[in-house]
Amino acid sequence: MRESTCQRIIPHGSGSNHPADTITLDETARHRRRAKLTSDGGIEFLLDLPTARLLRHGEGLLLEDGRVIEVRAEPEALLEVRADDPRHLLALAWQIGNRHLPAQIESDRILIRRDHVIEEMLTGLGASVAHVEAPFDPEGGAYGDSHSNHHHHDHNHGGHGHSHEHGDHDHSHHHHAPHHHD
């Protein structure tokens, strides 16, 4: 019997309330486009999505035979970052974002992966930082769900590479001819 294929993700709360099984994965393992996966109960299937995305806690993986495998986010070792007030939390979020760290931003806290260097920086900025075990569901960000940061800074943000084209003028820097910009 050939394995089932999943080509559709159904949102949390839609579809059947009785999934055939669950699959429990940490955040890194939930960032997928195409992969052979095995559910917690042993159902083997091929995930085959048009683009890579983060499978979020509670979403359903719809198999072609109609069964649904519910995604469970495995608790991970995280830092819970809290602040004195909303503006302070925004400033901390900016510091975290400026370092391209995946972050789950909530109204009263930010969750990031544990990192003692970042922990010291945030404590130095007045944050209250606690070690927690929790599912990690970071923001998709401006570039959709293609996290360009799974600790390999390739900075090719989903097709918006830095190709340095500068309009019509060329960059041949001849020092004899004057540089005309129309």
Report on this structure.
This protein has two domains: 4-73, Urease metallochaperone UreE, N-terminal domain (HSP40/DNAj peptide-binding domain), CATH 2.60.260.20; 76-134, UreE, C-terminal domain (Alpha-Beta Plaits), CATH 3.30.70. It is built from two helices and ten strands. The chain has helices at 86-98, 116-124; strands spanning 4-10, 21-25, 31-38, 44-54, 60-63, 68-73, 76-82, 103-105, 110-113, 128-134. Strands 2-6-5-1-4-3 form a six-stranded mixed sheet, with no helix packed on it. A hairpin with a 5-residue loop joins strand 3 and strand 4. The chain starts with a strand and ends in a 48-residue tail after the last strand. Pfam families: UreE_C, UreE_N.
Short synopsis of the structure:
With 182 residues, the protein is mainly beta.
Query: What is the overall shape?
Result: elongated
* Count of extended strands: 10
What structural class results from the helix and strand content?
Answer: mainly beta
Strand order of the largest sheet: 2-6-5-1-4-3
Determine and state the CATH class of the largest domain: Mainly Beta
Strand content: 25-35%
Instruction: Give Rg in angstroms.
Output: 22 Å
How many separate structural domains?
A: 2
CATH superfamily placement of the largest domain: Urease metallochaperone UreE, N-terminal domain
Q: Which blocks of ≥5 consecutive residues have pLDDT under 50?
A: 141-177
Number of helices: 2
CATH-defined fold name of the largest domain: HSP40/DNAj peptide-binding domain
Distance between the termini: 67 Å
Function: Involved in urease metallocenter assembly. Binds nickel. Probably functions as a nickel donor during metallocenter assembly.
Keywords: Chaperone, Cytoplasm, Nickel
Biased composition (Basic and acidic residues): 162-171
Biased composition (Basic residues): 149-161, 172-182
